[in-house]
Amino acid sequence: MGNEKNDSEAVESCGKIPINDHVHRPSHRSNDESRLSPNGYDVRVHNHAQKILVVEDDDVLRELTAECLASLPSVQVAECSNADDALLMLSDGFAPDLVFTDVHMPGKLDGLDLAIEIWNRWPALPVLLTSGEVTPGVEDLPGNTTFLSKPWSISALFGALRARLPGLEEG
């Protein structure tokens, strides 16, 4: 999104997560490729400094968010369609610098449950929680979690990310 030159320079490979129950439409970019990780996830990877895991059940919103984040020159993006798969991915050793998750999703866990699990297991891992349906109070959020209300603008998203990821570069 935005500057096509930065966009095309930023992306080195593209795919989908998880392969077992979610279909991802391939990106329009010619230099994209799909990579299957050893743990069975087909990961959208953009080879840069900071890793962000996007957890969103809405296919279009997840893809748009991933594309937007991938346009940043200092970001790698991985995607999951639900909190259960995100927790499994984290438990399998994927180590993002930040998790950006919606609250309401299908499955055993929702985004708030995921944030709580992350706080319990990986307290240094920041979580950016988002929803257009609920607005949790600061007292309801686990440690190291920030809330961003939907609908958010790209500038609001980038601002929230910069607050959680010092040194984040914009393209």
Q: How does this model look, in words?
A:
With 171 residues, this protein is an alpha/beta fold. The chain has a single domain, classed as Response regulator (Rossmann fold, 3-Layer(aba) Sandwich), CATH 3.40.50. Helix content is 29%, strand content 18%. The strands form two sheets. It has a five-stranded parallel sheet with strand order 4-3-5-6-7, with helices on both faces. It has a two-stranded antiparallel sheet with strand order 1-2. Strand 5, helix 4 and strand 6 form a beta-alpha-beta unit. Helix 3 packs parallel to helix 4. The N terminus is likely disordered.
Uncertain segments of ≥5 residues (pLDDT<50)? 1-39, 44-48
Secondary structure class reads: alpha/beta
- Average pLDDT across residues? 77
Number of strands: 7
Largest sheet: 5 strands, parallel
As a percent range, the share of helical residues equals 25-40%
Could you please say which CATH topology applies here?
A: Rossmann fold
Beta-strand percent range: 15-25%
CATH evolutionary superfamily: Response regulator
Q: Tell me, briefly, the overall form.
A: globular
Order of helices and strands: HEEEHEHEHEEH
- What is the CATH first-level class name? Alpha Beta
Helical run tally: 5
Distance separating the two termini:
10 Å
CATH architecture: 3-Layer(aba) Sandwich
* Domain count: 1
Radius of gyration: 15 Å
Spatial arrangement of strands, main beta sheet: 4-3-5-6-7
